[in-house]
Amino acid sequence: MRLPLYVHLDAESSARTIEAGLANLASLDVVDLFLTGEPSRVEAIAGALTCPYQSLPTPGFSSLLSPPILASIAERNAPALVINSDVKLTVQALEYVIAVTAKDLGAAAASLFAPSFAAPNRPPFLPLDDGCDGIFAAIDPGPAIAVTPAQAADLLARGLDGRACIFPRRSLAWTDDPRFDPAIERGHRDWIFLAMENSLARYDHRLEILPDVLRHMVPGLAAFDFSVDLFGGGEVGDAPYLLSSRPCHAPLRTFGLERTPLEANILFGVPGDMFSLAEPAAFGVMTASRRERLLGHVHRSFDLNQYLRHFLDKARKRASPAS
Amino acid sequence: MSAALQPAIVAIGYDRPEALSRLLASLGAGAYPAGTPLVISLDHSGVEAVSDIAESFVWSFGPKRIIRHAINLGLREHVLRCGDLALEYGGVILFEDDLLAAPHAYDYVRQAMAFFAEDDRIGGIALYHYLINEFDSLNFRPVADGSDIYFLQVAASWGQAWTVAQWTAFRRWYADAKDQPISASDHLPRQIEAWKASSWKKYYIKYLVETDRYFVYPRVSLSTNTAKPGVHMKRAVSIYQTPIDLAADRHWRFLSLDASLALYDVFYEPKPEMLKRLRPDLQALDFDVDLMGSKPAKALTRPLLLSSRPCRSPLKSFGVRAGSTPADDIVDGAPGRMFNLGPREAFGDMTPLARLKLIRATHGHGALSKFLFQALKPIQAEFAIAKARRAERKTAS
């Protein structure tokens, strides 16, 4: 099977960057190469490429999932890969694309990037590990996307529309853009994927765990219709209840902050009062101290003040023979 | 799966009834084949509640046995005796009382024991996955090699398993080594010298390094450390908490030592052979690796060095990328001069500025706090080493 590969050109694109991006493919015979983007860019680059290609100009579209590309994929009988021209594929990228598109997993598309890039101001993302190599999240799939013909037809009809894409736990591609995790997958993997409905690693557009996962795993939450705001970002949603790290004056359920990732504290019923389930009106604004506690926890930072107190106390005792 | 591979689970208790209760509850919530033995081994502490908890705990998966030691053995001797139970049960899985087990820990251990049964370079099987380097608290992320495991020359103490062969080999070594001092000149982190006499782990680490063996570590943890204050923990901290495996039925993807791309030494530094497998252009070079610039001079013996220390005449240089790992930066040839490969004698000492720069590049948030911790920890270690030496001299006299 030859994989259709759509390379989207922008102002920075050159024949050299494109060929560098494809250098890890065993052979260019494994792909049908399409150059997409503004017609002038396609024309300028195409003549300089040494490998066979087809042109698919997409005038006026900057998105990878533009209607002309999706229409082209939808007409074919094999999954396709769509990348920006500055993306470099790993040796394992095609294996991943074939594996992740082999079955309908319920995702809108498959990214080749791990989702650490999704929210620059957000703490590091540490997804639950459910034995599956994929994570579902309703975030932008980034600059390298695998799409099946059925997904392409669906995207053409209704766009992403807040639906989740599937992401690998380690990226199968990289760029020089510092938003993307450079620590890529380097080995061959027997890929394991679960359908979205069976996955525990399901996240919303802020990379907050979906309430469904918590309801499924925590019997005490099953009866509640709630939104999740474990990072205390303030987005409330329109559910009658909220599960948040913000201060709460009338909690119905509370959970502590001990385990990692944050949602594990809910899953394992850790006692404490960092997270509360309550009506949205019962929550105040996030405080700096709570925010700092959360950040220190997810960054695994030593509490330096506590450490210093312990350190200096020892030194004081040593210096004082009377003690 | 061989019927013989039914290691005993050993829960180790001392004087923390609440901690033991939590550990047992996590074990009781797991999945086990019928007949799985549970041993609760209690060192003498005089705390009756610990014994009561062991007694009342219901283990419905197989035989339950309680060992109550009549005298206080101390942690090292207690763990050694628990390890000896491997000979009786065909293998053991040890959990100290400040740990929590993942539901499918037992299945992981059985699969790992079966996969590595014939490889005597494996010194043990860890259930815990490190997110940080235990010695310097900096982030640790092994290179992704398609497998579910990595290899590290640090003995696991936060959930670990041994087969009969693994334990017997260690015991044979320990019989001669137990009276020998342990120091950085054994190619170990200086900090280990500060560990208490009650530490069994420092011996096991020395054993791994001296005999070039490894622990197998899972990339997703089958245990987590609640780090409650105890014999070796002064303050409650959450930095050792690690995500545990939630998979109900996992086929673990193991790789042999020879095929792995994730081999790390006792300093959590990539082994030279690992980098050579990932970068064939390094194949012919004979070099030590000290990417974090923290190895003692005695641990650096090869003609070339790959390090973040300042280098006068580098043969190759590599940069560091935000969010990456130093090993990944080397493999990808990241542009820059953070890491240099050159003749060993061309390197100077690590400077505080270079260390801060490295920590900022690799950690981002909290880099200053981590840097200050890095600066203070060696001083604290020196105090602890001096104290340990005084205690040794006192004992000797």
Explain how this protein is built.
The complex is a heterodimer of chains A (323) and B (397). Chain A has nine helices and 15 strands. Chain A has 323 residues and is α/β, with parallel strands linked by helices. Chain A folds into two domains: 193 residues, Spore Coat Polysaccharide Biosynthesis Protein SpsA, Chain A (Alpha-Beta Complex); 88 residues, no CATH class. Chain B starts with 7 loop residues before the first strand and ends with a helix. Helices cover 32% and strands 16% of the residues of chain B. Chain B folds into three domains: 257 residues, Spore Coat Polysaccharide Biosynthesis Protein SpsA, Chain A; 90 residues, no CATH class; 32 residues. Chain B has 397 residues and is of the alpha/beta class. Chains A and B meet through helix 8 and helix 9 of A and helix 8 and helix 10 of B.
What is the fold's blueprint, element by element?
The complex is a heterodimer of chains A (323) and B (397).
Chain A: E1 3-8, H1 15-21, E2 31-37, H2 39-46, E3 54-57, H3 67-74, E4 80-84, E5 88-89, H4 93-100, E6 110-111, E7 134-137, E8 144-147, H5 149-158, E9 165-168, E10 173-174, E11 202-203, H6 211-217, E12 226-229, E13 241-244, E14 253-255, H7 262-267, E15 275-278, H8 288-298, H9 304-319
Helix pairs in contact in A: 3-5
Chain B: E1 8-13, H1 17-28, E2 38-42, H2 48-56, E3 64-68, H3 75-89, E4 91-96, E5 99-101, H4 105-115, E6 122-126, E7 149-152, E8 160-163, H5 164-177, H6 201-211, E9 214-218, E10 223-225, E11 263-264, H7 272-278, E12 287-290, E13 304-307, E14 316-318, H8 326-332, E15 339-343, H9 352-363, H10 367-396
Parallel strand pairs in B: 1-2, 1-4, 2-3, 6-9, 7-11, 12-13
Antiparallel strand pairs in B: 4-8, 5-10, 6-8, 7-9, 13-15, 14-15
